[in-house]
Amino acid sequence: MKITKTQLRKIIKEEISRLKEGKYSDAPLYRLADVARRDWKKVSPYAQPYLDALGTLDDINDKYMFDSGSSIVAYFLSNARSWKGAIAKEVKKELNMRLKKAR
């Protein structure tokens, strides 16, 4: 199914409002990864493995193979600097808050 530009704008607007309302504050990490995948058109090849790993985690305290969830989040954030926009700002803000709580 192909999404029109109008539908995409509506989806993005809804995601921004959900993020700003804090509706993702208790969402699993894989949900935030899903939001990132839908919004970030050309994912950085450096961030891609961390986004994939993030997509398998429920919580920042989970493990991904031998890595902690918090290290996956930290590495994703450091490699996601090219992801811009309102959704990116809100998702990164949420991930940073979770990272600070975990440390």
What overall form do the CA principal axes indicate? globular
Strand order in the sheet with the most strands: 1-2
Total beta strands: 2
Count of helical regions: 5
Based on CA atoms alone, the radius of gyration comes out at 13 Å
As a percent range, the share of strand residues is under 5%
Name the helicity range: 55-70%
From N to C, what is the helix and strand string?
Answer: HHHEEHH
Uncertain segments: none
What number is the mean pLDDT?
88
**How many strands, what sense, and barrel or not for the largest sheet?**
2 strands, antiparallel
Please report the distance between the alpha carbons of the first and last residues.
42 Å
Structure class = mainly alpha
Any idea how many domains?
1
Describe the protein in words.
This protein is mainly alpha-helical. It has one domain (5-102). The chain contains five helices and two strands. It has a two-stranded antiparallel ribbon. A hairpin with a 2-residue loop joins β1 (63-64) and β2 (67-68). α1 (5-20) runs parallel beside α5 (86-102). The mean pLDDT is 88.
Summary of the model, kept short:
This protein is mainly α and 103 residues long. It has five helices and two strands.
Descriptive labels:
103 residues, two-stranded antiparallel sheet, globular, mainly alpha, single chain
